[in-house]
Amino acid sequence: MTKKARRTIFYVFLGVFIILVPMIIFYALGYAFDFAKRTVSATGGIYLKSLPSGANIYLNGKPAGKTSKFIRRLAPKIYNIILTKEDYYPWEKNLTVEPELVAKAENILLIPSNPQISLVATESTDYSWFETKITSPSYYLSGANLYETKTGRILVKNAGNFVIYKDGLIYLDNTTGKIFELDLTSLKSAEIFDRVFPSLNKGKWILSGDNKKLLCQKDKSVEILWLDNVINNSIIHKKGDLEKINFEQTISQVIWYPRTDEHLVIAADNSIIVTELDNRLPRNTFTFISTEKPEIKYNTDQKMLYFYTQKKLYQTEL
Question: Are 201 and 305 within one domain?
Fold first, then answer.
């Protein structure tokens, strides 16, 4: 081999080295070439976890594996995600990927499209265990005062809505319009928020299982107040955030779905509806069961939803 040939080979390999090494380094650091913008940019990712798992993932219409999965090295932009699984409604969400960050959707609840419903009891059989037992409440409102049932003493004067919270109560003070937490041992109240939420005094209060969210049930909407700072599904909710979700039907009952505390099961005029708190578009809301004026209860151990309609009691897995 001549000296000139050796020199040519040397310079070729040197050029390849100069080009490839920076590319390898940038790749290792999580950078990629954006062909649309013709620039090198830091990448991000998407993490998807569904209940149940094993759902097919479609990223901008292209197959991208099954849940649960972390999809890496994505250029920063908005991605359309669709999950499909046989016998379940498709789940869809537009997720924004940012440089060096992971967009998460880890509380995805897939809703059966053809739920298997079993008859548990009829009018002629015993379903009394399903019915709400009529017992004296531990606390009650009368004449705008909040009383303790056992002793009859006044806990709070001029109170509005209230609900049991941790080891005490939270209530709305009619004088100031603010929400307070009551310590039942000392009977001292502490202000939770420095502002008022007037709409929360018009409806039924329902506390989430994690004690971090307060729901106020209205005729055709629910309002959710965050009682603490919460980061869920890459969404940051600050203490005091308030969100309203509207529905077309009149609501008779709402329960928090206990397996996630991020979904609501709603009994409406002629259906049972399941919706998610994740407000990134689109919000996934499904008519789970069509039935007349249902009453609902959820059994966490059995993972069963029970509903009573037309003097019959049914169950279905959810």
Answer: yes
